[in-house]
Amino acid sequence: MKKQAIIRSVNTSENKGEVKLPVQEIKLTDQGIEGDAHAGPHHRQVSLLSVESIRKYEQNTRSQVPLGGFGENITTEGIVLHQAHPLDRFHCGEVLLEMTQVGKKCHGKRCAIYKDTGECIMPDEGIFCRVLQGGTLKAGDALEYQAKQFSLKVITLSDRAAAGIYPDRSGKAVLEEAGKWFRQKELGLDADSLVIPDNQELFSMELSAAIEQGADLIITTGSTGLGSRDIAPEVAKAHIEKEIPGIMELIRVKHGMVNPNALLSRSVAGIAGRTLLFVLPGSTRAVKEYLEEILKSLWHMILMVNNIDSH
Questions:
Q1: pLDDT in tens, 230-288
Q2: Pairing of strands 149-157, 217-221
Q3: What distance in Å separates the CA atoms of residue 37 and residue 50, rounded to the nearest whole number?
Q4: Buried/exposed 195-226: b ≥16 CB within 10 Å, e otherwise
C-alpha cells in the first residue's frame, strides 16, 4: 500500500527565521519555492513538517501553533516525516521532491519562530527537500512517499570459483556485511551478485553495465594481488572518475602492521558518476576487515556523491 501525506497548508515568508504564512498555492522550480526566503541553489530548498509533530508539541505545551508557525513551507498529515531518510522522495503530479536532511541547527533567540513559540520543533522533526521537478502544490494535494531503494552490485573475480571448483565465499561475505549495515540503518537494499573469471574485458563490461544502470554501490572481491591474472584495480581505475585513496591506505597500514602481506593488496576505491566503487581482496577475512572501515563512513560518502552537504 502506498503511503501518502496530505498537504494541509502551503506557506511562505519573505525572510529567513520568520513564521511562514499560508498561501493559496506555491510554485516550485529548480531553485525552490518562488518568492520564499529559502529558495536558492542548495539542498534545503523546501521545508516540511507533519501535523503529527505539531499536535504532539501542542499537547506537551498546552498551546496552539498555526500552520506554518514553525517556519515550514509545507504542512502535511498522514506520515511522520522525520522517520523518513535522505534520498527518499515525495511526488504529486509533476512535482518531485527529494529529501536531503532531517532537522537543522536551531538559531535560538535570534529566530522569530523561537521568540513566538518558546521552542521550535523543526530542528528535530522537520525535514528538508530539494526540487527535482517543479510545478505547483496547494492544500488538499497528496504527496506520495517513495522510500529510497539502494542498489548494490557484488562482483567476485575468481577463475576457480567461476569454474565451480569451489564456492564463492567472499561475495557472500559482502552481501552479509552490507545487508546487515543497511538493515541497521533501516534502509532498503536491492542486492545482486555474480561470479566471473579474472577476465579484463568481461569485468569491464560488468562494471560499465552496473554504472549505466545507476547502481549506488559496486563492491568487487578478488584479483587484487600481484599475479599475472590479477587485473581488478587496473580495470576499475579506468572507470573511476574520482579516486578515494584514504580508506584503502588506512586499511593497508592498519592490518599491514600485524600482517605485512596485507600491504601487498592493491585494492582501490572511487566514484563513477554517483556510483561508489570498492575493489576488495578475495578472502572472506579481508572482506570483513575492509568493510569494517568502509562502512564507518559509507553513509557520509553516499550523501556526498548525491551532493548533500552533511557537515
A1: 999 999 999 999 999 999 999 999 998 988 888 889 999 999 999 999 999 999 999 99
A2: parallel
A3: 21
A4: bbbbbeeebbebbeebbeeebbbbbbbbbbee
> For residues 192 and 1, what is the distance between their CA atoms, to the nearest angstrom?
25
> What is the distance between the alpha carbons of residues 268 and 251, in angstroms, rounded to a whole number?
11
Judged by DSSP in three states, 199 sits in coil
**pTM score, whole prediction:** 0.90
Long-range contacts of 100-109 (CB under 8 A, 24+ apart): 100/43, 100/44, 100/128, 100/129, 100/130, 100/308, 101/43, 101/44, 101/127, 101/128, 101/308, 101/310, 102/126, 102/127, 102/128, 103/127, 104/44, 104/128, 107/17
With cell 550523501, the residue in question is 303
d(CA 252, CA 141): 54
Distance CA 178, CA 12 (A): 41
Q: Supply the pLDDT for residue 147.
A: 96
d(C-alpha 145, C-alpha 128), whole Å: 14
The two beta strands, 268-272 and 32-33, are unpaired
- Would you state the cell numbers that stand for residue 232, as one nine-digit string? 581488478
Q: Quickly tell me which residue has 572511487 as its cell.
A: 270
Phi, psi of 7 (to 5 degrees): -75, 120
**Cα(67)–Cα(136) distance, integer angstroms:** 19
